[in-house]
Structure formats: structure tokens, C-alpha cells
Design brief:
single chain, 140 residues, mainly beta, 5-stranded antiparallel sheet, plasmid
């Protein structure tokens, strides 16, 4: 299992990944992350056809001061592509009105290959992310 966090508030531009500034736990060579990056690399180190991971992301999100109030979205992304099945949408009534979101997905990595995963701002405007937490569990 690996856990990456950003305990502060990060304003993330539209289409960008949420930076993870600290590693709370990581004990697997098949999960690789560089401090401050929003990307986590999953490696297919297995004797089977594929390695399977559960990737989860939780955070508090809001429209930052100066932004336009409306629906905002975040999603897990695999190799840069947001997953529709792991997208969270909230509609704050005012700026700095935080909502808690959580998304999860199973990601399969073929033997010998690598896949990148990230939490991504899929809104058309910047979003404030507070207390972000990305966990990755190798399940098979």
C-alpha cells in the first residue's frame, strides 16, 4: 500500500493534476512517486498476465476566491485520461464553500508495463483542493 498526501490547500488549474507533496506510506517497488508530483507510476511487476491496483482519491474541493460559482469536477486519470467512472461533481453555492469528494477505481497494468495515475481537475476553471489523499493498494 502507498499513501500520498497534500495536507494544505492547492489551487489547481483546469486540466492539471493535484500535486502530492508528501509520502505518508509506501512499501512496494511496484508503486513509484516523486515528491511534489501529481503522477504515481504503477509497474506491472508480476508473474501473472497483469497486476491489479485499487486507486482511491479523497479531498475537500471548492471554487477559489475570484472564481465563478458553478459545478466543479475532479477525477482519477489513467495515463492522462480522466475516468468517467471515477469522477466526482459538486456544485458549491459560494466561493470557498468546500465539499468532500471521494473516487476509486481498479487499474490493471500488463506484465512488464507501466501506467501513470493521478487525481485531476476536470473542471473548466481552477479548483482549490484541501487535505488531498491518494492511496494505491496492490490487490493482485
Amino acid at each position: 500500500m502507498a499513501e500520498y498526501v497534500n495536507p494544505g490547500i492547492a489551487v489547481v488549474s483546469a486540466g492539471q493534476n493535484v500535486p502530492m507533496v508528501s509520502t505518508a506510506a509506501c512499501g512496494k517497488p511496484c508503486i513509484v512517486h516523486r515528491e511534489g508530483s501529481g503522477l504515481v507510476t504503477l509497474r506491472g511487476l508480476t508473474q501473472q498476465c497483469k497486476a491489479r491496483f485499487r486507486v482511491s482519491f479523497g479531498a475537500n474541493i471548492a471554487v477559489p476566491t475570484g472564481g465563478t460559482v458553478g459545478a466543479i469536477t475532479t477525477a482519477l486519470a489513467v495515463n492522462g485520461e480522466a475516468l468517467n467512472s471515477a469522477t466526482a461533481t459538486v456544485t458549491p453555492a459560494a466561493v470557498e464553500n468546500y465539499f468532500n469528494v471521494y473516487v476509486s477505481a481498479i487499474v490493471e497494468v500488463p506484465r512488464g508495463c507501466c501506467v501513470t495515475v493521478a487525481a485531476k481537475n476536470t473542471s473548466a476553471e481552477a479548483i482549490s483542493f484541501a487535505n488531498s489523499n491518494l492511496t494505491v493498494d496492490r490487490v493482485s
